[in-house]
Amino acid sequence: MGTRTIRRTSVTLPSLDEPGLYLSHVTSLEGGRGRVAEFHYGDADLRALDLADTHLIDGRVSGLKTQRARLEKLRVDSVEFTGCDLSSLRWTDSKVTRAVFRDCKLMGAMLEDVTLDDVLFENCKLDYSTFTRVRAVGPLIFSQCSLRETTFDAADLSTAAFEGCDLRLAEFDGGTYRHLDLRGNDLSQLRGLASLKQVIIDHGQTPQLAEALAAELDVTYGEDLDDK
């Protein structure tokens, strides 16, 4: 069973190459009795994807493109999503365990009341997304992701780590972020700094936070004033 580790945070990855596990190709993620297991779903170009009360177990989803995705009460266990375009995704009231999103586009996505446990986002585009009441109850890693103008609203990311991410104008609006590991990222354009109490940073990032705070407070520097 593989892991992905960023400093103190280790995500357990899906075990899809174990001896005896064979992934069958499926043409839909809507399984009988709401359950799809040991599957590979790939290279689909859909106008819309609507899944509700569905359980995805031990599978790969690759090259999926959809103009509109609505996921509700979806449970994901040990699944890899690779090269998927799920822009404008709406994902609510769900739980995701031991999952990987790699090279995926999730721009403008809205996740609400989604629980994450052992989840890795790697090289994903999540710009303009909103994470509302998203709870990381286990390890969560964002690695080399673009999160420009993404909003974390009343989220719990106390077990999360960011590494090499684009966080320009990302906003933290309330929530729990104690022990959130922000080392290895440029923090100079973050917003909502008052919510980021007890996060983990390097000493060298202190000037970045000062720059972000000055921008957020819209301060005026005396040197720039015309005193004449």
Automatic annotation (TrEMBL):
Protein's name in the database: Pentapeptide repeat-containing protein
Gene3D superfamilies: E3 ubiquitin-protein ligase SopA (2.160.20.80)
Coiled coil: none
Entry superkingdom: Bacteria
UniProt cross-references to SUPFAM superfamilies, sorted A to Z: Pentapeptide repeat-like (SSF141571)
